[in-house]
Design brief:
Elements (H helix, E strand, L loop, with lengths): L3 E5 L4 H12 L4 E5 L8 E2 L5 H7 L3 E6 L13 H21 L4 E7 L16 E3 L10 H20 L3 E6 L10 H6 L2 H8 L7 H18 L1 E6 L10 H15 L3 H8 L9 E3 L2 H7 L7 H10 L6 H6 L17
Parallel strand pairs: 1-2, 1-4, 2-3, 4-5, 5-7, 6-9, 7-8
Length: 328
């Protein structure tokens, strides 16, 4: 009888967070990863069909988080991205259908939107919903979109319930943009991002767990998973030109709370991720937003969730780079 959740990528940020949560709830879960970890039950590749088939025994739901990420673009070939992100997903889908898996949750990324995230000069910030057509900028985005298409195909032709969660940033590492790293301490930049392009890993996990419960009823769905923005469409022109003015209007105490930490807001914001569909259809209620940041600054506490602190930093490479955390 099918009874457990299979988590691919169990040695990564989200995979570990999911496994920690399932274990704390005494919910049967099985971790698969190419790297050994305390949360990996079997070490192997998602491209190895026999290995995947064996791991799927006794599985009722697959949560597929394993992937090559954007920071790997400079260190891995395009073929490696295709092998892991596309072929690996295809193998999982085919074997999930053969095993009678009840639902498949695919962790995608808002990076799929690519060039659609950056408006032309003089245009308002982009309002990013699930209706925005992806324009991938690199092999990472291309392969994630391709994997999403495979998920949709299997949902339509094999009647496999599949939900795709396009997650925004939740990694704890420094920004991959050197200019941001130089100007803002990590906590400052990540607090700013909760206004429009970031989520806490605890909220990401809760979205995945809700997706398991909803997948069979929904059949197929694609959702943006990001912290609830305080902005509305009427703010888009203003935040593209002077974001601090809008933020301080919405949060009058922000200026003093930031000044006490010697923090500063980003001068402009170019896109806003909108989570309304996930809130409506999944019943998702993210807790970690910008108001939470300000509440924590007021009380002198860490705005990261306990789960985010427990998982900590994983990094993406075994090599250290002289010019920053990423070879980009």
């Amino acid at each position: 009888m099918n009874q457990h959740v299979l988590v691919t990528g169990s040695a990564g940020h989200l995979g570990e967070a999911l496994m920690l949560t399932f274990r704390a709830a005494r919910r049967p879960a099985f971790g698969l990863d190419i790297r050994a970890s305390l949360f990996t039950d079997r070490v192997g590749s998602i491209c190895d069909r026999a290995f995947v088939r064996e791991c799927l025994r006794g599985t009722h739901t697959v949560i597929h988080t394993a992937t090559l990420h954007k920071p790997h673009v400079a260190t891995h070939t395009m073929q490696e991205f295709v092998d892991t992100n596309v072929t690996g997903t295809l193998v999982l889908l085919e074997e999930a259908v053969a095993a009678g898996v009840e639902s498949f949750i695919y962790t995608s990324t808002t990076s799929t939107f690519g060039a659609a995230l950056t408006p032309a000069a003089g245009e308002p910030a982009a309002w990013i919903t699930e209706d925005v057509v992806p324009v991938p900028k690199n092999i990472y985005g291309v392969t994630k979109v391709a994997a999403e298409s495979l998920c949709e195909l299997f949902s339509r032709t094999q009647r496999l319930p599949v939900l795709i969660l396009r997650t925004s940033r939740f990694f704890p590492e420094d920004d991959d943009n050197a200019a941001i790293r130089e100007k803002y301490e990590t906590a400052n930049s990540q607090a700013n991002e909760l206004l429009y392009r970031r989520a806490d890993v605890e909220d990401i996990v809760s979205a995945h767990i809700l997706a398991i419960a909803k997948a069979r009823d929904i059949g197929f769905g694609r959702y943006i998973i990001s912290a609830t923005t305080p902005f509305c469409r009427d703010d888009l022109a203003a935040i593209r030109n002077s974001a601090p003015d809008v933020v301080q209007r919405l949060f009058p105490d922000c200026k003093d709370l930031y000044a006490a930490r010697n923090w500063s807001l980003f001068p402009q914001i170019d896109r806003v991720y909108v989570n309304e569909l996930a809130v409506k259809e999944l019943g998702w209620q993210p807790k970690y937003d910008f108001q939470h940041v300000l509440d924590c600054l007021r009380s002198g506490t860490d705005f990261r969730s306990p789960l985010a602190r427990a998982v900590g930093s994983k990094g993406y490479h075994s090599t250290s780079f002289t010019e920053g955390p990423y070879p980009v």
